[in-house]
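Fold this complex.
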Amino acid sequence: MAQKKKYLSKNQKIVLDIIEKSAQPMKAYSILFNVQKKGLKAPPQVYRALDKLVEIGKIHKIESRNAFIACRNSACTITNATAFSICESCEDVKEISSSKLSKYLSNFQDKEGMKFNKYNLEFFGLCKKCK
Amino acid sequence: MAQKKKYLSKNQKIVLDIIEKSAQPMKAYSILFNVQKKGLKAPPQVYRALDKLVEIGKIHKIESRNAFIACRNSACTITNATAFSICESCEDVKEISSSKLSKYLSNFQDKEGMKFNKYNLEFFGLCKKCK
DNA sequence: ATTACAATGTTATAATATAACAATAAAAGA
DNA sequence: TCTTTTATTGTTATATTATAACATTGTAAT
Ligand SMILES: [Zn+2]
Ligand SMILES: [Zn+2]
Ligand SMILES: [Zn+2]
Ligand SMILES: [Zn+2]
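Structure:
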């Protein structure tokens, strides 16, 4: 299982480090710009690290923004089940960790009775500051 | 309000038409290719129509796939609240219309008590056929 | 040591999306 | 009507996001 991976490679560490230092999601080419001083010069080096970090749950992709955010929710590194709130004004993004929500969604069945253990939910609105 | 719009423009009709004829989500450049015989020659013509159609709820964007699907759920043309199931094997996508789910998510509050009336939820798994 | 697999470095290119501007068409107000 | 405003169109160019392909190097197990 991908989640069992213990050690990150050099490039994976560099990329994770910069994403973790950012309070907000970072775009791939912004990451690239920021890691060029550390020797990662080309897009594939960044995208490969991003792919792996997403795979092992260290970061998540905010699909509606094409951006990447560090995971702050230990539970979801195992589940592939993610939820975020996104402010449409200041673009502030927060990961939602609600066991009630994740239970509800993991147990949700569609009309054919199908269940899904993997999902991504993005909520949109205005954050406190912007309201 | 955008939802009150009654008539679509020529390009909007052309683009909607082709998306509605497709059982599955279509990518923008695939749409472009398909409408070139009808005179839409450049990406902005397609993207403008897509933007408007998304805005008025006639189509939805599947964010994780960068693709567009026609809305089959009259309720969500008003709500900006969408949910889909996506088969990770055959890429079959279905819009989920569950008033229970939409009520649950519209009433969901985050830790600061914030509510969101707009959201997008993408479930992933294997469809009946692929399981 | 040999073998397998993961990660790296590199160049080029594919795929997705928007900026900018001139021209037309449609809708609304006088 | 006519005139003003707004939405839509056509067009060229370019920005942004992401992957293909291939040679090389590092790592870990046998
Ligand atoms: Zn997480
Ligand atoms: Zn905000
Ligand atoms: Zn819909
Ligand atoms: Zn399937």
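Chain B has two domains: 10-73, 75-125.
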